[in-house]
Amino acid sequence: MLVRLYALPPSQPYDDRVAAAGITIRRFEPWDRFALRRFITEHFGENWAAEADVAFTGGHPIRGFAAVKDGEIVGFAVYDCTRRGFFGPTGVREDLRGHGAGAALLFRCLHGLRDLGFAYAIIGGAGPDGFYEKVCGATVIDGSEPGIYRELYREMAERRSRASPS
After folding, report:
1. What residue numbers bound the domain in which 43 lies?
2. Residues in Cβ contact with 137 at an 8 Å cutoff, skipping those fewer than 6 apart
3. DSSP secondary structure string, 46-88?
4. How many Å apart are CA 133 and CA 123, to the nearest integer?
5. Which of 22, 83, 99, 100 could serve as a FRET partner for 161 with CA atoms 20 to 30 Å apart?
6. Contact 1, 141 (CB under 8 A)
7. How far apart are CA 162 and CA 118, in angstroms?
């Protein structure tokens, strides 16, 4: 999906919902790296954890944000990791979805990409297209699935077929 960074809608409604739910959105700090990796691995898998690790290797500021509730990471979003100008991966703990954290994290990252000088952001392998269309005006890039993830999907399918009993 493609997002016009020069025409983003306001993020304030999502920021307000997150605050009302007692969730704080903040940029990652270096000491978040290992807790984040554990969180992502537990809730979303190793592939996403590996991608998000890249956010910590590109200098400062770190290219990602955490959603925190009661001192725990409950969501995350990174940008400019998988490829230049890409948003993601991102995820919010299942029991806390629907409080605006996903949207608030998305906007922080989109603003981060805009601050890096990008006019457009790419959301690769977007899950719920409708969410991104509604929240930030993203549009589908025709013919882009599976895009850069083609090899990853192929390798995952091969691993599954080797692991399944014949």
Report:
1. 2-163
2. 3, 4, 7, 8, 9
3. HHHHHHHHGGGTS-SS-SEEEEEETTEEEEEEEESSSSTTEEE
4. 11
5. 83
6. yes
7. 41
Q: How far is CA 24 from CA 20, 27, 115, in A?
A: 10, 10, 21
Q: Which two tokens stand for residue 101?
A: 């954290």
Tokens for 87? 């948003």
* Residue reference for tokens 């290797």: 57
Which residues of the chain carry a pLDDT beneath 50?
A: none
Report how far residue 129's alpha carbon sits from residue 105's, in angstroms, rounded to the nearest whole number: 16
pLDDT of residue 82: 84
Q: Which residue has the tokens 């890039």?
A: 141
CA angle, 148 then 153 then 159, to 5°: 145
Amino acid code (one letter) for 29 = E
Torsion of CA 156, 88, 76, 24, to 10 degrees: -160
Structurally, the chain folds into a number of domains equal to: 1
Cβ–Cβ contacts within 10 Å for residue 17, how many? Answer: 16
Interhelix angle 129-136/101-115, rounded to 10 degrees, is 60
CATH code of residue 159:
3.40.630.30
Cα(162)–Cα(166) distance, integer angstroms: 9
